[in-house]
Design brief:
Blueprint lengths: L2 H19 L5 H10 L4 H10 L10 E5 L5 H15 L5 E5 L9 H9 L5 E5 L3 H6 L20 H6 L1 E2 L2 E2 L1 E3 L5 E6 H6 L16 H8 L4 E2 L5 E6 L8 H7 L5 E2 L4 E2 L4 H17 L1 H8 L13 H4 L2 E7 L2 H8 L5 E4 L17 E4 L7 H11 L2 H11 L17 H10 L12 H16 L5 H16 L10
Parallel strand pairs: 1-2, 1-3, 9-12
Antiparallel strand pairs: 3-14, 4-5, 6-14, 7-12, 7-13, 8-9, 10-11
Helix pairs in contact: 1-2, 2-3, 4-16, 10-11, 18-19
Length: 468
């Protein structure tokens, strides 16, 4: 090794030791990275003894989330429970303003300014892109066990990038059709066709039921509506999957939003909204889709919307804000009679951003919070589904309505492709989705544009193996 090579290696080792002293790297990770530059474990150990790692003792772990109540209250209670049982690590929970699905602007700004959190709740499907952006730390040295041994395979895949875990799956969910029996019966509309015992209805049959419930004032503005396709969890993926569409071709390494079945799904939604009046539907539904909108003011909660697509967590929303409502939960509709209903699962994850100051404490917290102890609490209190495989078998965690999700829907649920351009793909799909359901773009053209824009960025990462 030349003098210059030795100097370079020593400089790299010094950087690793500095990060260790500041609590940004664990001992295990320092040893692993040092080995990659040719420094033995013994030499690293000697250096660490001379410069002991600062483990952040006495410095609270900063935990950020954009969650709102009622789930925020559950997170606060869980944090208190962790603090009470911890041998030393204490966590401070901070609520940041709710944002759009892929918006991590506040996190990125804080990380760059050196004021970021130690743990962050991230929508799991964008893990790969945020890891590729250099925003997240590889969690391998912090995990109590490999994720594949404890968590659901699809959630592990979503939490990974380049074969490494960058987040720990915290929860999952599935989407279904909720219907307000109280409202329907008051309007003289029979809810029986929506009973899950009858299987899924077709989208056209749902439209016929919903249109009996629309009420407009003298100016033509809706005061009550039966159904708004794009409200709540009526996303592009929801409809694309329901029509049997595919969003990614792994063999060709390209996104496929122009798949004919995805286009057909977009077209059905556009036709539905056009028939009811684009502007009138938008005026009624759009306020509740804004970040931070009060859950108790949602039109389904207030009794002004009869049917919506949403997830299992809404059981807790209704328990909190509409305890007297009689409602049902059933399968997402299908294009034609005899088709199999489809749903999809998403969920959140815990990340340790680059720049975290208490990495050791963060590791202790996230293993508890996203491990079996924390997920056991969260599943029962919030009506989300766990990603810890063993908890799916514990019937005590699920009330009757929630078992419909854990037993009927999660086993067949699809998931969004966890791509290193996943956040961009979501945003491009959303822009196309919104343009079509308000009548400003044709589905086929809008989705072709999405394909062109996303594949232009995806190529740099090909080939991509999605795993389980």
């Amino acid at each position: 090794m030349t003098h210059q090579e030795t100097a370079t290696r020593d400089a790299q080792l010094a950087i690793l030791l500095d990060k260790a002293q500041k609590g940004r790297l664990s001992r295990r990770e320092v040893v692993r990275r040092a080995a990659a530059i040719g420094v033995s474990a013994g030499a690293v150990g000697a250096a660490l003894r001379k410069a002991p790692i600062v483990r952040g003792q006495g410095t609270p772990v900063q935990f950020w989330t954009g969650f709102t109540d009622p789930d925020l209250s559950v997170l606060r209670s869980m944090t208190d429970t962790f603090n009470a049982q911890s041998g030393g690590t204490q966590v401070e929970l901070r609520q940041i303003p709710p944002a759009e699905v892929t918006d991590v602007t506040s996190l990125m700004t804080a990380v760059r300014g050196g004021t970021g959190p130690d743990v962050y709740l991230l929508d799991r499907f964008i893990t790969a892109q945020r890891a590729a952006d250099g925003l997240l730390q590889d969690l391998t040295p912090l995990l109590a066990q490999p994720l594949a041994e404890t968590h659901l395979p699809f959630a592990v895949s979503e939490s990974s990038f380049d074969g490494k875990p960058y987040t720990i799956p915290f929860n999952t969910d599935a989407r279904a059709l909720y219907y307000n029996i109280t409202l329907m019966e008051a309007a003289g509309v029979d809810p029986a066709p929506l009973d899950p015992a009858n299987g899924p209805v077709t989208w056209d049959a749902l439209a016929a039921i919903a249109n009996q419930l629309n009420v407009a004032d003298a100016n033509g503005n809706y005061t009550t509506m039966g159904f708004i396709p794009w409200l709540n969890q009526g996303w592009h993926y929801t409809y694309g999957f329901s029509y049997g569409g595919e969003f990614f071709d792994e063999a060709a390494c390209e996104v496929t939003p122009d798949n004919e079945r995805v286009v057909a799904a977009f077209q059905w939604v556009q036709d539905y909204c056009e028939a009811l009046g684009y502007q009138q539907v938008q005026a009624f539904g759009s306020p509740s889709m804004q970040p931070g909108f009060a859950a108790q003011e949602h039109p389904f909660i207030t009794g002004n919307l009869a049917i919506q697509i949403t997830g299992d967590w809404y059981i807790n929303q209704l328990r909190t804000y509409a305890p007297d409502m009689e409602y049902g939960i059933t399968f997402i509709p299908v294009p034609a009679e005899g088709d199999t209903s489809a749903t999809w699962a998403g969920g959140w994850s815990l990340a340790v951003p680059e720049g975290a100051k208490n990495v050791e404490g963060a590791g202790e917290f996230l293993n508890w919070f996203a491990g079996e102890p924390g997920q056991r609490i969260y599943t029962k209190e919030s009506a989300h589904l766990p990603t810890v495989s063993a908890l799916l078998e514990d019937a005590s965690l699920y009330e009757e309505r929630h078992r419909f999700f854990s037993e009927e829907l999660l086993p067949i649920a699809k998931n969004r492709p966890p791509l290193p351009v996943g956040a961009q793909y979501w945003d491009e799909l959303t822009a196309a989705w919104q343009a079509t359901y308000i009548g400003e773009a044709e589905p086929a053209e809008a989705l072709a544009t999405v394909k062109e824009r996303v594949n232009a960025q995806l190529g740099a990462f090909c080939p991509i193996e999605l795993g389980s």
